[in-house]
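Appendix B, Record 12. Input sequence as logged:
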Amino acid sequence: MDDEGRTAERDDRAGGAVGHLVTDVGNAVVAVALVGLFLFAVSGVWPPLVAIESPSMTPNIETGDMVFVMEPERFAGPDARHGVVTAAAGDATGYVAFGRSGDVIVFRPDGDRQATPIIHRAMLWVDVGENWYDRADPNAVGTAGDCDALRNCPAPHSGFVTQGDFNTEYDQVGTTSTVVRPSWVVGTGEVRLPGLGWLRLRSQVVTGGQPTAGETAESTASGSVNHTVAGRTAES
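Logged structural output:
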């Protein structure tokens, strides 16, 4: 075989390898898209998976974990309010999620669609105007000695009082969020996937992207969420 023939043969092999690579990549993209669509069909939330950025839900959910999130009303537990079982209700019925009573929810702090969603536990349901101080955990209200000294008491509107499992105070004691309206709840955490969120978080740092979870559509099937630790919002 002359040089021209050998060159043509090498070109054919190279072209075939490239073609196989393109096909494999295309198949992988289709497979990921199908998985994402399946998870969305089950959860009713996009993205259905969120990566955990900080440790305020430790030890039940760790930094770098991924959590599967579901629309609250789909499979609501006993005595749920708007699809969410509070820790107070869970204590009465034995309902447990992620190691403790009550649902873990992903919500927009103060209803801000531009803010990174937070994943914390729903502790209490309060009605508009309610003095909820007497129903609160006295260890979770900071230095407040009564409702007048407690931020967001009386309740400015009906909704959820929330708290990170690792945190000592309710979110509503500080500036993390006011009482969480049901319409601000993106979904309930259902399944923890340990360590699988690190890839999402690392790619976010490398690309310089901002965390976008909740109802903001992503090019992948996962987003990221903030926790708050000791009253501070954990930044990515």
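The CA atoms of residues 87 and 123 lie 5 Å apart.
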